[in-house]
């Protein structure tokens, strides 16, 4: 596809009604959208507001279990963008859907969000631990452990064409107690799009499945 044609196609995709965004003004108080899923994620303390909200865009990475021939041992690698000012009661999963769709196009950051950090995993005494590293933006660092998870809503986007295996779970994670976190104590992963692996695999096979999610950080 010629570059100009590709650009036109990209712009058409990002302006399509499938990924149309509601008005993007910040509400007076961002409310964690736990009402969209079943019970299982404890809410923040009464009156608590997120320090900031990040958009994660990257891949969920899996290795096939040679015994069960299913994917497991998943880790993730994602870029984190500041999306705080865009979140309101109407955005729901529109921004994660938009950015997952844009991840395979030349326009990977359609809202020109500020890049503020990286999400990755490192090995610790408790296994593979998720890190949210905001060193570049001075917003802190969180090395976490999972407390709870619930299935994504039924209407969550299953993923990109050819990798539409389902949206990864919503999560609640807290500091893992290894005294490496700074300024951040917990995070919720919500409004997920894509990221689940295929149902079966061959021994040794790896899968890198694109996903996007909102991450709400608290003290």
TrEMBL record:
Signal peptide boundaries: 1-20
Keywords (A to Z) from UniProt: Signal
Pfam families in the record: DUF3455 (PF11937)
Xref: InterPro entries: DUF3455
Protein name from the UniProt record: Malate dehydrogenase
């Amino acid at each position: 596809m010629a570059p100009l044609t590709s650009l036109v196609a990209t712009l058409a995709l990002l302006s399509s009604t499938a990924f149309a965004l509601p008005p993007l003004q910040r509400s007076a108080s961002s409310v964690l959208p736990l009402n969209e899923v079943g019970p299982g994620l404890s809410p923040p303390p009464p009156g608590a507001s997120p320090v900031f909200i990040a958009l994660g865009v990257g891949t969920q990475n899996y290795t096939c279990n040679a015994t069960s021939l299913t994917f497991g041992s998943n880790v993730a690698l994602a870029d984190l963008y500041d999306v705080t000012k865009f979140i309101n009661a109407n955005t729901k999963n529109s921004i994660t859907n938009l950015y997952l769709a844009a991840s395979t196009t030349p326009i990977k950051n359609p809202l020109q969000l500020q890049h503020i950090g990286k999400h990755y995993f490192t090995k610790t005494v408790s296994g593979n631990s998720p890190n949210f590293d905001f060193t570049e933006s001075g917003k802190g660092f969180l090395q976490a452990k999972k407390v709870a998870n619930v299935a994504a809503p039924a209407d969550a986007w299953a993923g990109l064409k050819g990798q539409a295996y389902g949206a990864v779970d919503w999560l609640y994670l807290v500091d893992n107690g290894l005294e490496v976190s700074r300024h951040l104590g917990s995070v919720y992963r919500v409004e997920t799009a894509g990221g689940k692996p295929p149902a079966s695999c061959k021994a040794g096979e790896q899968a890198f499945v694109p996903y996007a999610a909102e991450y709400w950080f608290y003290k």
